[in-house]
Specification:
Structural class: alpha+beta
Number of strands: 11
Strand order of the largest sheet: 10-9-8-7-11
Distance between the termini: 12 Å
Helix content: 25-40%
Number of helices: 10
Order of helices and strands: EEEEEHEHHHHHHHHHEEEEE
Length: about 350
C-alpha cells in the first residue's frame, strides 16, 4: 500500500483502504478501481490523499486483511449504534478483543517478526483496531499475563469512544492549529469516554484506567489529568496510540512511519516508558513494504521485504536507476547483505 495525492492519480488505481468522509460516510469501498472520472469529484469533496494497492508486494501484517476488515465492520456497527451511557451492546467488544488476541496468537512466530505498519488516512475505528493489535503484540512480547492482555485489548477498542461526541473535524490537524474551544474539547475526550463507561461492571478497572489515561505521559506532560504514575498497561497503550495516531492523523498532522518512529525515539524515557518503546520498535519496520526510497547510490527502490533484527535495513527492488531511467529487469538489493548501501530518504 502506498499513500498518493489525488491530484497525482492517473486512473485505474486500486483503492487499498475504504475511502470515507470525515464523518465516516463511505465514498468508495476497499478494492474499488479509481476511474479517471472520479478524480475531479474526489478533489471537489476535499479528499487530498488515498491509499493505493501496489501489486506483487507481500506485507507482513499483524492481522490478516480479511480479519481486520470483518473486525472493523463489527466495531463500527457496535459503536455507531452507541449513544451516551446507552452501553447495552458494548460488551460484545470484549469478545471482539479476544478474537483479535486469538488471531494474533494463531500466526506462526508472531512475536519474532518485523511488521509493516502503514501510514494511512484517519479513521477512529481502524485506529482503535490498529492500536489494539499493536498493544496486544507489545504485551505478548513483554510476557504480560492473559488477563492484562485482555484488558488492554478491550480498552483499545473503546479508548477513543469519547471522540464520537466531538462535532468538528479533528483529522490531520495539530492541536495547536485548532481553536481554543476545539483544543479544549479534544483534550476532554478521554474524560467523556471514561465517564460514559465507568459504571459498566463487565469492564475492568484496568481497562477504564486505560481509556481515561491513554494520553498521559510519564513526565506529566499529557492530558487530561497530568498523571505521571501510570500502570504498565497504560504505558503500553500510550506508546501504541501516540505512534498510530501520528501515522493516520487523529488530533495531529499525519506523518510518515519513519518520522513517527523518530518521535518515539526522541521522547523515549521522557514522555514514554523506554522499555515499552524498545519492545514496540523491535517489531516495527522503519520502511514498510511498498515504501519508495532513494538510495545512497541515487537509485529509487521499493521495499519488498524486511530483515529480522534490522528494522531499518529492508530488502529493496530497484525500479529506477541513478539516471532516472526505469529498470527493465528485476534487481533485488538486501541492505543487510550490502552494508555500504543506505536509504537517503523516502520518496512519494
Amino acid at each position: 500500500m502506498i499513500v498518493r495525492k489525488v491530484e497525482e492519480l492517473t486512473g485505474e488505481e486500486i483503492l487499498d483502504r475504504v475511502l470515507t468522509t470525515w464523518d465516516y460516510q463511505v465514498i468508495l469501498p476497499e478494492g474499488a478501481v479509481i476511474r479517471t472520472e472520479y478524480i475531479d469529484k474526489l478533489i471537489d469533496l476535499g479528499i487530498k490523499e488515498v491509499c493505493i494497492r501496489e501489486e506483487g508486494i507481500q506485507e507482513s501484517l499483524i492481522l490478516k486483511t480479511d480479519i481486520e476488515s470483518s473486525v472493523k465492520e463489527k466495531v463500527k456497527e457496535i459503536l455507531e449504534k452507541h449513544t451516551y451511557k446507552q452501553n447495552r451492546n458494548l460488551e460484545e467488544l470484549s469478545k471482539t478483543a479476544d478474537n483479535i488476541i486469538s488471531n494474533i496468537l494463531q500466526e506462526e512466530k508472531v512475536v519474532e517478526r518485523i511488521y509493516d505498519i502503514k501510514q494511512r488516512n484517519a479513521d477512529i475505528y481502524e485506529h482503535s483496531i490498529s492500536i489494539c493489535s499493536l498493544a496486544i503484540l507489545t504485551a505478548l512480547k513483554m510476557k504480560l499475563p492473559s488477563e492484562s492482555i485482555h484488558n488492554i485489548g478491550v480498552a483499545c477498542l473503546l479508548h477513543d469512544i469519547g471522540l464520537r461526541y466531538l462535532t468538528y473535524d479533528f483529522s490531520d490537524r495539530d492541536l495547536d492549529k485548532m481553536s481554543d474551544y476545539e483544543k479544549s474539547e479534544y483534550k476532554k475526550h478521554p474524560i467523556y469516554g471514561y465517564t460514559d463507561l465507568k459504571e459498566e461492571n463487565w469492564l475492568s478497572d484496568a481497562s477504564k484506567d486505560i481509556i481515561l489515561l491513554h494520553h498521559e505521559r510519564i513526565n506529566g506532560s499529557g492530558f487530561p489529568l497530568k498523571v505521571r504514575n501510570l500502570s504498565l498497561e497504560c504505558r503500553i497503550v500510550s506508546v501504541c496510540d501516540a505512534f498510530d495516531e501520528r501515522i493516520c492523523g487523529i488530533g495531529c498532522k499525519r506523518i510518515r512511519v519513519y518520522e513517527a518512529i523518530e518521535y518515539l525515539k526522541f521522547h523515549k524515557n521522557k514522555k514514554f516508558d523506554g522499555k515499552v518503546v524498545d519492545v514496540f520498535l523491535n517489531f516495527t519496520a522503519v520502511y514498510p513494504v511498498g515504501t519508495h526510497v532513494l538510495t545512497s547510490e541515487g537509485e529509487i527502490g521499493v521495499v519488498v521485504g524486511q530483515n529480522r533484527d534490522f528494522q531499518d535495513r529492508p530488502i529493496l527492488r530497484i525500479i529506477q536507476d541513478r539516471d532516472g531511467g526505469d529498470v527493465k529487469k528485476e534487481i533485488i538489493k538486501d541492505l543487510v547483505k550490502i552494508q555500504n548501501l543506505f536509504i537517503e530518504q523516502v520518496v512519494s
